[in-house]
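In the previous chapter we treated chains in isolation. Here, by contrast, the input contains two separate entities that must be folded as one system, with a combined length of 232 residues.
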Amino acid sequence: KNQVEQSPQSLIILEGKNCTLQCNYTVSPFSNLRWYKQDTGRGPVSLTIMTFSENTKSNGRYTATLDADTKQSSLHITASQLSDSASYICVVSPRYYGGATNKLIFGTGTLLAVQP
Amino acid sequence: GAGVSQSPSNKVTEKGKDVELRCDPISGHTALYWYRQSLGQGLEFLIYFQGNSAPDKSGLPSDRFSAERTGGSVSTLTIQRTQQEDSAVYLCASSSSGTSSYNEQFFGPGTRLTVL
């Protein structure tokens, strides 16, 4: 079972509208949760990173929330633009001890299409 | 360099052939990661290099996969006797340090490998 699950798998919205993407995770304990944006044919680019003690983090029109009790995160995009069309990936960094590798656990992503 | 670069961007090979994929990390970054992104799947950790320490190879799927990092900079991922299930996008990432899970990983554009 994937430890990081995202919904919806894909989403189509009109330019200017808002949308919210969901992420549920089972990774425990965890150190931080990240949202990445991946344009087609490119590598992922970090949007936000939140530690387990943070509830929200904004980056321009992107706002991420985190509820560590329910193990849920969301990414809210405000006033969408055509350039927001991409895959949005939720990534959890487990908390390791003893200097172990910082392996990230990736969700499968939500594919967002913004139409004019 | 300005970012992580990978070459080639695309590679088509025949089943059974060996392939080498190259990654140039951001200058000064001590940590380097290789991931595999298969269609419809989340990024899968393959291998991690941190400075002069022994690499974490725990994510390599079989002994046909190996990687080197020469001089603490450039890395090469080698896949021997390629199989069709090796077809995927191979992504490289680097970070300024691998010892803090908060450090951002910067991704290259990936190499799309197709095994016929």
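Chain A has a mean pLDDT of 91. The radius of gyration of chain A is 14 Å. Compare these points with the single-chain example from earlier in the chapter.
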